[in-house]
Structure formats: C-alpha cells, structure tokens
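Long-time lurker, first post. I've been practising inverse folding by hand and with some scripts of my own, and I keep getting stuck on stretches where the structure tokens seem ambiguous. Below is the full token string for one chain I'm working on. Before anyone asks, I'm not after the true native sequence, just a reasonable design that respects the backbone. If someone could post their per-position residues I'd love to compare against what I wrote down in my notebook.
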C-alpha cells in the first residue's frame, strides 16, 4: 500500500506536459490560491521556463 501511495505522491510532483525544450520540469513551489481555495503548483525547467497548473 505504501508503494502505491509513494507512486501517487511522485505523480503529483510532475506537470501534465513537457517543456518546450523537451525536458521534464521540476516542482519548485506549491501555493494556495485564496480566490479558489485550491493548490497551485509551479514548475521550473532547467532551461529556465516556469509554468503552473490551474
């Protein structure tokens, strides 16, 4: 059961798509949106591009 939990935690750290350069961005920050009450994740690629999920 813990293997499934750790795998799902790892999936939460990954963005839905690759960066324009083709690399996988890394999770750098998690914030709480006061407008929606939802968690927003910010990702940064090694090339410097930053993205976030809604």
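-- Answer (accepted) --
I ran through it position by position. Result:
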């Amino acid at each position: 059961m813990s293997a499934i939990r750790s795998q799902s935690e790892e999936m939460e750290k990954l963005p839905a798509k690759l960066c324009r350069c083709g690399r996988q961005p890394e999770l750098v920050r998690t914030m709480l949106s006061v407008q929606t009450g939802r968690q927003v994740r910010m990702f940064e690629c090694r090339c410097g591009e930053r993205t976030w999920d809604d």
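A couple of notes from the structure itself: The longest helix spans residues 2-12. The chain has one helix and three strands. Happy to go over any region you disagree with.
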